Amino acid sequence: MASITLAELANELGAELHGDGSVTISAIAGMDKAGEGEITFLSSSKYREHLEACQASAVMVKEADRAFCQGNVLVVADPYLAYAMTAQLLDTTPACASDIAPSAYIAPDVQLGEGVSVGHNAVIESGVILGDGAQIGAGSFVGKNAKIGANSRLWANVSVYHDVQIGANCLIQSGAVIGSDGFGYAPNKGKWVKIPQLGSVIIGDRVEIGACTTIDRGALDDTLIADGVIIDNQCQIAHNVSIGENTAIAGATVMAGSLKVGNHCFIGGASVFQGHMEVTDGVTVTGMSMVMKPISEPGVYSSGIPAQSNREWRKTAARVMKIDDMHKRLRAVEKQLEVDE
Fold first, then answer.
1. How does pLDDT run across 288-298, given as a tens digit for each residue?
2. How do the domains of the chain map onto residue ranges?
């Protein structure tokens, strides 16, 4: 189990320590459950009343909340960020793979950096380049001529198709598929003719991709995922999509082909984006939104109807079905008023 003293933790966080720096911290817990040897945090002053009963060995708070704490305190500018950094320091997640498993297949011409690990039954095909410290989990597949940067990690059963490029310090969760064919077909007399997808997927540094997310390769140009992007589980990113730096995409989001999303956007879960349009930098789209038109101004955008009781929803649905009739009646009244004037 990882552990750290409060004095060491304060130094790592750049925090102001009030209390006993020799106290050892081995875990993080919620304020209502934390006990001896554990640290907690207060990210919102509206929960300040719970500090008095807190049994944690230490609390991370803003300066404004320090006077309400009973024991050891670390004063930080952003307690939630301090929590994230502390969690990294105490993280006990095992490596995706250790050493080179005897059951792994690695083509003779693969370029292995120093300290590369490949798990059991993984397949690394010809022409692949694995950077220093890369970890390839059990059962994963890395196709011909793919490149995976230094210290990037693929958990079990990840599929990376041919020619895909993944940058440094990326994390790809189990079941993700990177570089599968985009949905490209041409109609021909009632049948479909497949269009080979000739582009690839280029992923920058520090990108994280959730479990069972699919990122399609481009039809002609490449699908592009910029540095610092985070993508949740079970998302679909279609061919030739471009996602800008540090954009966050929550689970079950669907992005259609040739969509361009800017930098520092926040996309709520289960949102749907039409293709062949652009979303500018700094846009927040709330969950379950349907984005059908380009967004050229930063801001918060929403659509969809919040949940109601079944009785209320049936009334709402009945009224929605009458909107066209209501519109026609309103136009008729407006025209009559114009005549009367």
1. 999 999 999 99
2. 4-90, 105-301, 310-340
Residue 245 neighbours by CB under 8 Å, 6+ apart: 204, 226, 227, 228, 229, 263, 264
- Amino acid, res. 167: G
CA angle 120, 159, 247 (to 5 degrees): 125
4-90: CATH topology: 3.40.1390
Does 239 qualify as catalytic in the annotation? yes
What whole-number distance in Å separates Cα of residue 61 and Cα of residue 43?
Answer: 7
Place 198 in a pLDDT band, splitting at 50, 70 and 90.
Answer: very high
* Position 52 confidence tier, pLDDT thresholds 50, 70, 90: confident
The share of the chain scoring above pLDDT 70, in percent, equals: 99
> Please, are residues 31 and 50 in contact by the beta-carbon 8 Å criterion?
yes
DSSP 168: T
Whether pLDDT at 139 is above 70: yes
Dihedral sign of CA atoms 179, 183, 188, 191 in order: positive
**Cα–Cα dist 151/174, whole Å:** 17
Distance CA 322, CA 333 (A): 17
The token pair at 165 is 């490029």
Nearest to 289 by CA among 319, 324, 252, 322: 252
Report the CATH number of the 105-301 domain. 2.160.10.10
Phi/psi of residue 236, each to 5°? -120, 115
User: For the whole model, what pTM was predicted?
Assistant: 0.92
Which of 18, 239, 276, 327 is catalytic? The answer is 239
pLDDT score recorded for residue 256: 98
- Asked which of 46-55, 110-119, 176-185, 261-270 is least confident by mean pLDDT, the reply is 46-55
